[in-house]
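User: Hi! I'm working on a homework problem where we have to compare a predicted structure to a textbook description. Could you give me the structure for the chain below?
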Amino acid sequence: MIRAYKFLLRPTGRQSVAIGEMLRDHCSLYNGALQERRDAYRHASKTTVRYVDQSAQLKEIRAFDPQRQGRWSFSSQQATLRRLDKAFGAFFRRVKAGQRPGYPRFKGTGYFDTVTFPKDGDGCRWDSTPHDPLTRVRIQGVGHVRVHQHRPVRGQVKTLSVKREGTRWYIVLACDNVPVEELPPAGAIVGIDMGVAHFLTTSDGEHVANPHLFTAMAEELAEAQRNLAMFPKRTRQRTKHHRAAARRVAKLHAKIRRQRADFHHKTARTLITDHDVIAHERLNTAGITKSPAPKADPEQPGVFLANGAAAKSGLNRSILDAGWAQFLGNLANKAESARRLVVPVDARNTSRTCPECGHVAKGNRLTQARFACTACGFTANADHVGATNVLNRAGLALCAAVQPPT
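Assistant: Happy to help. Predicted structure tokens:
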């Protein structure tokens, strides 16, 4: 099994400067390679420059600029060029599919946040002992950097990435052959219904409260954003006060992101520990949170009718704050590691279907929290009904999967 480990780096002041220079020089290499491809296509009879051509120039580039490009790992620079090559590959794939192409763009130094080392020991070496307070990672051109290793690393380290998030530095390890940590059988199955009023409701009737992390910090974040907006455009990125205001906003967003990830991991771990099978709705979060299309007034050209965009924006904000997609991804990953089964089912009408008689109607759900069947009169909490229907659909799907062919 493949697993990624993410640990906080604790570099010294000098090492932080060196890591920042490493990102800056790799960003310069990325932008230079992109510029070469653009110029070759525009001015050299639409010539295509590929990864192998640019990788072959690395020795000359390093020899020409030994203080910057020659200082860093050769393999990490190749990984940066592969990153650009993948961006162009995705661009041409979208062109052929008739989608919005999204031509690769130049990266600013503040937006190029990751340097990858394709092999452990080649430019970056992981030196670790489980729970050793003196864990180090050696980065070429930087030195031995302390690592806050909060859990042991299992399996074989394949690739390493140094990542910047705000003012913090992280090391991300991609490991192969990670042993499965199988949990003992729990003897229980459950269906879950994702929501906004409650983060999720189980088929057992248990509600998990929604922490509303973004809403809890909305006032503080709004104040930080107002302070950032006070700087006119002509002075942005030029004064230390503007940079401090931008760091404040980024720090608050990072805190919300970490709190949300912690909540997701703990909630998913509880479900995995207590149940052998977890069923959930197959949700398309991107489609659910899509803004409604504008409605043109047929009688007045250039005038648009109300389409509920304001109300939908509030619902979209709540859904994205809950982070359904991230949670379901964590749940699937933990289930794979623990040898549990996660069953996604069709989400249509799960909260409008009566679990007693099977009657489906929009009027069955009277309010956000109340369900009352118009056919048989069955009443219950709407989220509990949805979780029950999810569990029933999962049972039918499992029976169909194990049924022998006729």
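For your comparison, note the following. The CA atoms of residues 60 and 70 lie 10 Å apart. The first strand starts at residue 3 and ends at 10. Good luck with the assignment!
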